[in-house]
Amino acid sequence: TTDENAITNSISLHEPAHGALQAIVSNNDSAVRITDVETGFTLLNRMLFQWPVNYTAVAPDGKLACVVGDSTQALVVDVSTGQRVAECTKHIDYSFAAAWHPGGNIFATGSQDKTTRLWDRRTFRCLATLGGRIGSIRSIRFTDDGQYMAMAEPADFVHIFDVNQNFHQEQEIDLFGEIAGISFSPGGSALFVGVADRTYGSMMQFRRRRHGLLSAADLWQ
User: Fold this and answer.
1) How far apart are CA 17 and CA 215, in angstroms?
2) Cα–Cα distances in Å, from 201 out to 181, 191, 192, 207?
3) pLDDT at residue 216 above 70?
4) What percent of the chain has a predicted confidence (pLDDT) above 70?
5) CA–CA separation, 11 vs 86, rounded Å?
């Protein structure tokens, strides 16, 4: 893009059941670009929106995507056509994060209003609201098995929820520094937290320990 507002806000990866690895690029020029990684990022699709896009999460089956940005709306769109399928309108500020449960029927959006909202793909109804402590929700991730969901604030706090307990059980990780992002390892045995502090910048790793707090079976330490 040659747009003067062409700041890339996020890049996420999606691997279709049949096809090559794709990079989903969300940009401040109000566009989402889907590219083919294996062919040198060949452009496959480009979707335009009415506001800068901060993050795009593609559903596990590759049919739908949740798009969030400088709007109180979270849009669900058809990936192949770009057509709007639903509007999720419960947030009261701009959003920066989104993620799909690996089962495909629940997705989550994280907002500057300090909440993560969980949505039912079948009805697009808000199922629950999870609050943070100090700031916007900047990153959301599910484990591969769908048992846990983690959400990160801009600094100091990461929250882990037990999905099997309807998100009622939570473990809060209190650390020091600005958080660049979070990610679970394949298989979900570890959680990685990027710390963006200029002096203490680092990557922190938390392992799942058996027979602990969450579900009386697991504890992150």
Assistant:
1) 32
2) 12, 17, 13, 20
3) no
4) 93
5) 23
| First vs last C-alpha separation in the chain | 43
Pair type for strands 218-220 and 202-214: antiparallel
pLDDT band with cut points at 50, 70 and 90 for residue 218:
low
pTM of the model: 0.90
Could you tell me the CA-to-CA distances from 140 to 57, 121, 209 in Å, in that order? 10, 17, 21
User: For residue 33, how many C-alpha atoms fall within 13 Å in the half-sphere facing its CB?
Assistant: 17
Query: Which token pair is 113?
Result: 């209003």
